[in-house]
Amino acid sequence: MRIPIPRLRARRPWTAATILAAVALLMSGLTALSASGAESGCRVDYTVNRWTGGYTAQIKITNLGPALTGWRLTWTYTGDQQVTSAWNATVTQTGGNVVAVNTGWNGALATGGTADFGLQGTWRSSDPAPSDFTLNGVSCGGTGTPPPTTPSPTTPPPTTPPSGDCGSAVICSDFEDQTGPTPSGAWRFTAPDCQGTGTAAVDTAVAHSGSTSLRVEGRAGYCNHAFVAATADLSSVGPVMYVRMWVRHTTALPAAHVTFVSLPDSSQGGRSLRVGGQNGALQWNRESDDATLPAQSPAGVALSRPLPTGSWQCLRFSIDTAAPKLDTWLGDEQIPGLHADGVPTQDVDQQWLARTTPPRPTALRLGWESYGTGDDTLWFDDVAVGSAPIGC
């Protein structure tokens, strides 16, 4: 066991008000749709990210008429949507009628100028995109059946082979070969840097497939590391490393920084490339410089997603060992905020691209590491790592 050496610069979690106003944007599923309409006076682009029971919408106003010193956008929801919060505008709703008014700093709209704002809401039976936008009393038109806005990024998820078929993967484990309560064989308990009260064990009561999984009791507080490490050497996997795992956890990701996947990285001198969460959403973190993906701004975190609790989730990612690129999928859906393609994207990868050395992961650890508050119980099952895409 190495002597504990704190390596992280503390990052203050957002205040409760910021989390309610911004992190509430996070969705448990992303389905990008859009609506737009234009006449001589204005254009409105309405892009919705929908999941069961909820949605967020990003709304862009383009002023095609005379310059404005303030704006008031109205529309009607024909489903049972209810707005619960908004940002960059004051949004009120009466029945199906919605009114959005500029803030003090984004009211001026020159001819051709644009203003963006967003909102979060709920729905039960239907969530059709509105089409009757009106800006300062002037209709923006719209038929309600516009061409869809292509979500970014557009990289398709890896689709083959399916779960249970790892192909030629270096790691392909459903943990059915574990015979006792302590991880053994190709898996070993480890506590990088220092050990606290967190534990890991073989679980025969909860599993994604078969009857066995790995269970980690994660505990809050720095130097409370608890991981199960694969003994396989991953240093030759590539040039793109594909990782697939099924994970289940009980407590929503906290505002403070946590890690549940750690990949020792020779390009960082053995420090880790990490998958975890902060401000309630999934994130990547690079231990050597504490860079995050996405950037931990409200807009950046809104492009990530929470890790749903109480159910098995298929988490996949690809790591390019020849370039500083990676991708992340939850199920078959790519997470825009966890995508780095080498092209700078505002609120996503400005920190990540500051380092141009490609990652070179050499091992895989599954567990829990908290840098503030945050206990969690997690299970891992059907884990695979290889040089070819591995599907859910």
Tell me what the structure shows:
- Strands 11, 13, 14, 16, 21, 22, 23 and 25 form an eight-stranded antiparallel β-sheet that branches. A seven-stranded antiparallel β-sheet has the order 12-15-24-17-18-19-20.
- It is elongated.
- The chain starts with 15 loop residues before the first helix and ends in a 6-residue tail after the last strand.
- The chain has 392 residues and is an all-beta fold.
- It is built from two helices and 25 strands.
Largest sheet: 8 strands, antiparallel
How many helices does DSSP assign? 2
Low-pLDDT runs of 5+ residues are: 1-12, 16-39, 142-164
What would the principal axes of the Cα set say about the shape?
Answer: elongated
Alpha carbon gyration radius: 23 Å
Listing every helix as H and every strand as E from the N terminus to the C terminus, the arrangement reads HEEEEEEEEEEEEEEEEEEEEHEEEEE
